[in-house]
Structures
1.
Amino acid sequence: MWTVVHRERVYAYTGARDFDPALPTVVFVHGAPNDHSVWSLQSRYFAHHRRNVLAIDLPGHGRSAGAPLESVECIGEWIVALLDAMGVERAALVGHSLGALATLDAAARHGSRVSRMALLGPAVPMPVADALLDAAKQNDHAAFELITGWSFSPGDLLGGNRLPGVWMAGNALRLMERSRPGVLYTDLLACHRYAGGLDAAAKVACPSLLVIGERDQMAVPANAAALIEALADRRVVTLSECGHSMMAEAPDGVLDALRAFLLFDASAALTPRGVLL
Amino acid sequence: MSKPKNTHFDTLSLHAGARPDPATGARATPIYQSASFVFPDSDHAAALFNMERAGHVYSRISNPTCAVLEERISALEGGVGAIAVASGQAALHLAIATLLDSGSHIVASRALYGGSHNLLDFTLPRFGITTSFVDPRDLDAWKSAIRPQTRLLFGETLGNPGLDVLDIPRVASLAHDHGLPLLVDSTFTTPYLLRPFEHGADLVYHSATKFLSGHGVVIGGLLVDSGRFDWTSSDKFPTLTEPYTGFHDMIFAEESTTAAFLLRARREGIRDFGACMAPMTAFQILQGIETLPLRMQRHVDNTRKIVAFLTAHPFVAAVGYPELTTHPDHHLAQKLLPLGCGAVFSFSIRGTRDQGRRFIESLRIFSHLANVGDAKSLVIHPASTTHFRVSAEKLRAAGIDEGTIRLSVGLENADDLIEDLSRALYLASKAPGA
């Protein structure tokens, strides 16, 4: 569906369902420089299980118009503006990577608007290697290749997708190639410069879920430790043998963690790839 | 800066898509010879059917062994995914049926495999889909054949029978200027010699029966999506951009930014037309692909030696191989096919139809049959077999003469193959003419 936020057209995938104001809403926020399609399995599940789903394309990404937002704080504010545009008073936010940081910031600044937050592949801080930033700044294709190489666990980089017939690494690369020039650099710089993560975490009042990839090289698990400590009402799921592209690498592990957190009691059963800590 | 450490082609040939079997530790990809797969619970079942979870339901739609093959060819081609089907012809049909409706039009190279030509020229018109055939070397002909109803451009990397090299960059550019995808049959070259996506093609298919397998024991096809084509940029592809009532009003291009074509092909084409690949077939093709880089290099090495031998032989009138400076696409081949132009080519003897037959019958190592891409060397004489009802005049129009011989060079010792050809050429030259 389409809506308008800050006078720019914005696309949100809804799982082929009409938006129902009577239902709770879950907003899915992608990472750099992706779009809504990284959530296709998980978002579709919630759209067909008593939730409104807004799997958004951030400004300048995917189908959405406008320029990419230059800071995590701006993206967090934009998410709340999206809720305003949709007439949604409170929503659960689910973010991955850059989207996780924006979700965290939105939940900290606008506690009354966020019922729950799930952070997938989070790290605070989330530093980006100079080599990657330089390549992204030059719109060098090597930046996409570097991210692809670092985004999967060693096993998943060679395949074995749970979604039949889709080559995960090639699909991830191709999705990034579709991003507009400069978008990746803007997104990575926003991650790199975000310094308020721990302060934000201390202000978050809603229940939170952190989903960590055991083999994540983009947001290494060690960089989530302080974030976990700073969150008051938290549960953590570590996906074994999983890298940063967890929605593709462990689609059921991610979905089951989200189901347990968003639909059911947190003790709901998880798949063998998911370990509830 | 750091250089990306991309996995090499040889390694992908062995490992892409596969991992040791988590249930048994089996290192080889298991043959999941099962028609269907158990649902853990009802909610899981519903989620699988509604594409909320990933997994296998029924082996017509997907199968774990076939999925390994699909990932492997995707990795080798540099695509986003693939669908394994019953044959190369099934792959071509699936591509067309996914994108085109009655009233749609295709522009295709006229230098096609006969089976593809049959489908386009004789069968699809019955379903309202028509094709204009053009000289693959004539870009103006491609351009002038495009109509408002055109939805696809199609050619072979190496055309049949003259090995016309498809100028993929220019034809793809033309296609994209008109908002159309380019589909390429890459059977003769395999991704070892040419990766069409790197030159602008949007969809690639293979008869996996040929070089990908190498052993000549299965029939199979693979359809690969580059994930690059923007189906949403026009209203030409409603099968991908409008709700599909046959699958919960899914809009495939919204569901997947990169793999909308594959989604529709699997959720409709394989589901409804049913030309799926058997898991045993997928396993056997995987065994072949493991050695693809080694085999293709040997195929090319042997072919080069045989081309050199035939070119110098007094009873040979012409050899059509794009590495020869006499071939009209020599320069294009140097650009697109630096590792070699494959192992299938035609040559003409200075003789009659009967002498051509005598040549074939005198061969001892080359097998006389209608296939290419086997590990064993193969030969066919079109004028006395596939085209035996065709007049000499029509043969010439198709780029064939009464003395044309097509070889598929295998992996035997090149000296033995040359000896075989040498003896047969001698006997044919001494045979009486027609």
Note: DSSP finds twelve helices and nine strands in chain A.
2.
Amino acid sequence: MKIIKILSVAKEKDLSRFFELGLNWTDSRCLNFIYTPDEKLVAGIFTLGLLCRDLCIESKNDKNLHFNKLLNNAKDYLEKCKSCKYICQPDLAKCGRFEQAQSQYKKIGEAKNYTVTAIDLIDRTITVGFTKKPTKKTPYENETYRTIIEGYSDEWHIHGMPSLIQHERKPALGEIYKELTNEKAIKANLGESYSQISFVTSNLQELKKFNELEIEINGKQELMGKLLTLSNESVSRLNSITAISRRGIESAHQPKNIIFSDLYSFLKSIHIDRFRGAEKFIFFNSTESDTKLSELYEYISSNRDWLTINEKNTQMITFCTGLGSADVIILNET
Amino acid sequence: MIPLNTDLFKNNKDLDIIEVEIASNYVSKIRSSVFRILSILLENEYLDIAKQLRRNIFYTLKASQENWKSILVNTPFEHPEVKISRVYGEDIEEAVNEINVNIDQVAVFGNPMSIAIKDFFIQNPVNKFYVLYIESRLKTELEVLINSFRLVDIDIKIITKISEYKELNEFHTLVFIGSIRADDYTSIPSYILRNTKFFQIVQFKWVGQKNDYTPFITPISRLRLLLSDDGVADKDIIKRVIKKPFVLNGDFLLSNKNQDNIDEYELYNKFNLDSSPALSFELSAEKVVFYSPNSKLICILNEPNELTVHYLKAVQVADLDTSNIFIVSFDVPNKYLNERDIGSREYQEIWKNVLSDQDFSSFQGALERSNISVKNLKICLDDWCTFSESVVKAPQDKSNFIILLKCMNADLMSYLDVDSDGLNSWIEDAWQEVLISRGEAISGGLQHSFEYEESVYKAIEKFIETNCTTSSSWPNEGFSLNVDSERCEIKLYQLNSIEFGYDVPKKILKQIISVQESSSYR
């Protein structure tokens, strides 16, 4: 039995139960409401559990999606953003995007920025280029082009976004993840990005807090932010979104699991189609305001025909977490 | 698996609630008179006055002062020189007089609320430390009141915000004035009830006002309740509710028992001011139409030997025998609904089109260089590009409007094919259009549709006189008429029954809708 402790808070807290819950979770497309009256870090611990669960499963990486992501971004940049007269005001431009498509691509191991110049949707290739400065040998500017082909795109990534694979192929933090997952974490996964888990919060302070939290497992200590890949790691296993700006929430891609750390984030993203098929975890506590709660009640009662209580899972979670039955409710969406 | 218990009210199992119910003859009379005025006002669509009166009564019932003149403040009824009966009817005048008489009684005998509070703290204090939650606007007068008790031994802390509550440690008794409710009319935020730091509540409220204990329920249990069909009885929630009736009669006895049972919070919450009470007219072919009780409608009585057409109030129709009534329905032409509104809109069409063709990034700069004084220019520009049916969306100030149009003068001049003088006068005209649209949006075309209804009524009367002397020659489905030199299609619906007790949004009134749709307004 492993014990996970949260250090750096006044009292050392053992929240292993919530970690185990995430680690052993079976997806079922439910709405999971978990009310934790005094505990504000539970959402993060649970998320770490889910993240570790997916580390243990092969194919839980973004390899299949990666080239499409590059291609779609390049397409949108060339067709929409490159010649857009609105300075990224999607409401005015009515372009369907919520943020600017990036023009710059990078390759692991190279410092150069490549600019997207063309795409070929039939052959599925992206042409990127850069301008060479005049030298003594070639006293004029010249363009150099390279082509990104599907299947050979792993090392390419969009500037400012996490790359698919880690630079040195040497997974950081491997040891502590191994402890967390009982040695089951797959090495390859540790070095690859993954975007199927989203963590949505409206509280930036909370995110910052996660970065600074130190957790301890079997004598090993690590910062929570690093384990959740929140602090600029080269690969990202968790897609963290702030619900405050519309752009933040709308730019999320289609995740399989979404963790909302408060009601505000949940209510903000109800209407987002890409979140529809996902399993949602809504963590909230006694600090929620009356207005947010009544919004939640209104949402639930106006959708009551599509929601049923999943008593079996509710019981299971109350049992696993030691929470009271007045703190957990699992709803099936139909 | 552990058995599931529905642990509804985790924190509140042993909470005492001491309800001090205050009954007073003269306050009851004020309350019932206000209720009477409000119902009449709403029926006659005096919405602003009704809203103000509702605000006033909620405020006054929580106040501890002796001067209750604030009930009529900011309403036409506070001025003695207004001829109330002539403008608002005799019923309202009577009720206002009643209120005024009883306000004087409050001044003479004291405000029962403050007497009850005083009595409680001086005669039966339950412990030594109280936290009193009150709306911030009432704080000062309550402080004055409590200081006047000169309480020794008892410490009362007044809080007005949740943040102040959060800073408190556990304490024994919470005091507040008014009802516990699950909606916005609650006297105490449900946050405080969900996160109890106290063991006892002392609540001062007027007789008849009811408590709703659902705010005590934990959020998850609330979700469970919303999704299951069985409600919770109040007694399950709070272990002990102790009622302490407090009766104060002034110099005359409580007479009418029924008047005491008003629950303002419940009643006035139902007075959704955007909707109005309505009568439902169930028609043939599963159709329904709503009329507010005092609005007029045209109906045709099909009696064995003659046909008659009437222009009656909805409540009057309800008194008739429904078996042979036809309800007349017709569309009011647009020009009667908002006649002046339509007219000229050509200016906005031109400048808005030119505006949306601008390159916004550079145009915004040009506007800023011309010293346009508008905050959030980006958002405003977006707004000005859109067309609205009622108001021409444009800068609020004329100077800004001129800057906006001058910044695209080249485009406008080429579009309109005029010189700069011509443009200036064109801008003046465009501004006039904006002004006119703003005026019109306020005063709608209500009057015109009444006029039109009258003329339809007269036309039908004429039609029946000439064409249908007997009921056999009566076109059951409908017919068309010439009204104001335009064709008007008249549809007829047989009336099946009339029902009271609906609450309908204003825009649904007078529209023929299906039975299914109507059931939601009950």
Note: The interface with chain B takes residues 33, 35, 85-87, 89, 91-92, 284, 286, 288-290, 293, 296-297, 300-301, 304, 307-309, 311, 314-316, 318-319, 324-329, 331 of chain A (CB under 8 Å).
3.
Amino acid sequence: MAILPPGVSAESFASAIREFQDAVGRDWVFTSDDDLYSYRDHFSYIKDQPNELIPSAAVGPDTTEQVQAVVRTANKYKIPLYAISTGKNFAYGGPSPNVRGSVTVDLKRMNRILVCDDKRHFALVEPGVSYIDLYRHIQQNKLNVWVDTPDPGWGSLIGNAMDHGIGYTMGFYRDHFGAHTGMEVVLPNGEVMRTGMGAMPASQSWQEYRHGYGPDPCGLFGQGNFGIVTKMGFRLMPAPEHWRNGLVTVPKREDLIPLIEAVNYLCDLSMCGEPWYGSPLMGLMGNTEFRDAAMSFNESAMDRLAASAKLHSWQVELQFYGSERTTLANWEYAKEIVARKVPGARFTDGESLKTPLTREQIASTTGPYPTNMRRNITQGVPGLGIWYMTGRTENNPNAWNETHIGLFSLIGRSGEAVLKAQKDFADVARKLEMPSLFPNALQTPVNWYQFAFLMGNGFGLGRGDNSPAGKLAATAKLREVLRENAALGYGDYRAPPILQDDVADQYSFNDFVLRRFTEQLKDAIDPNGIISPGRAGIWPAPFRSMRGGMRS
Amino acid sequence: MKLAMTALLLCASSGVALAQDAAVERGKAKFDHTCAPCHGDGPGDDGRAMLPGTDALRIKYQGALPALLEKRTDLNADVIRTFVRRGTWSMPPFRPTELTEREIQDIAAYLRQSSGAAAR
């Protein structure tokens, strides 16, 4: 299934391949169908279709200089590139580019941990370094820092941060792009640029003052297409000596409002880590009367049925990092703050454990209360255990979740916003005839980012219809969801390439001035439009006619 | 002359054994790094008894084959290459930069050794 980059002749492409081989070595340029199969999105909604987003070739540079050479060749032949690092990008398009026929720049071989400082608390890494790699490096060298890992630990620190990924420890570290400390980038013309103090040749503080002097362009590289990041620094949390958790429950639906206010207060004082919200009422969804009340947002009926079942409406599990005494003091203070705001709140002490937790303590499910908290990620221990969600399980023995796709909307960090979003999402599902148990009145947000909530769009897509037509119909529904969400003020934070134009369309203030601004910059910096054209809806002039092409 | 030939053969065979040991060692390191987070021993997330890859194979084979790859005797380099490069179910394909052909051979050497040890 050999394909060519758009607008590039077979002769030019052959010449470019030879130059790529000269740059990175023959063994690291991949053009065969067998090799390129692994560069396809395993969960693609358009697999084997004529518009499947597959590359024409892949190149695997080992150094920044090799990346520069690849970029220069691409410019010479006007070949679009698409950079990937390590990990699988499940639910967000895998390694697939935005433009079919792009050449994938596979940065996996650049896997060096250049600095990991446990006195000043930062690391400087290359794109091929995964969370698992850095964790193992820290363990092997007995360093006194943690990593803040997303659910799957195979991902790249740089790739995850570039896509605004998240983790589960303390607020500052959970926002992986926010916790970066400067970067090295190969620009579209092949030059190497360093940001912040890295722009100063003799600087001793590149990873400690990311602003440098003057405008900081780093934001352009996150979910952008202004260059290929080849090094990046990250702040690391110093290893705490102790971890403690505790459960808060509040009785009524409306108590969610003061509960979130209290938890926001504690989080923003850096007194607790990621809070895990939930509803003890999920267990009542098997009860027809309660389910009807939850699906129709009958607030008084839900409160009445919760009371008769002797269950509280909401819970939040809090976690604390520090010493035994400071974590206890913070938990006691959390009880005081919540009790002040929510008179009917109840508190259950969790576990109080010296860190690092043992493997048995991490796997333990015998705490004082049933917990939803995935303990390995709260302890900065990366793994792949989360993938029971997509694979064969006892409940799902004969099918896999082939249509796994991630859509999370930003919502306000308040109880009012959560209660409104639950109803809005349910209304959208009804309007678009996507009935399922989600969204409903019990859905809670995740607080991955310290200062924002994200809420999953848990819509029923008619799972089971994995035919091309079924997937096409599901994609069309998701586009409608994104449009409806935008009309209600909910924007998404991330999407696979087939939906990136649709998400970009949500951000339309003042006649899309943000997009016009970034595209003006793109045209100036990358006149041939070779770096990831179309990524995040940013289309350079030579490829701009492709905008929205995935909708047809 | 016969003695010299025997010594030469012994040297050659010990060289092969050393190379094989090195392949097993490299294969174990790569298996631990790339395969074990899903297919290793030990508990999974959210109170699950097994990691997802191990559990999936337990359910698939229902005891007809071991759930742990390290106990399988039927995984030569060709079989491993097929699964690694093509993926299966929710296991995605792995790129040649993530697992090279030599690393696939090394993992096959390690699994031969580990499954043999498990059988003893």
Note: Chain A touches chain B at residues 28, 30, 34-35, 37-40, 42, 58, 60, 86, 88, 90, 94-95, 106, 108-109, 128, 132, 136, 153-154, 359, 363, 365, 374, 376, 383-388, 390-394, 397, 400-401, 404 (CB under 8 Å).
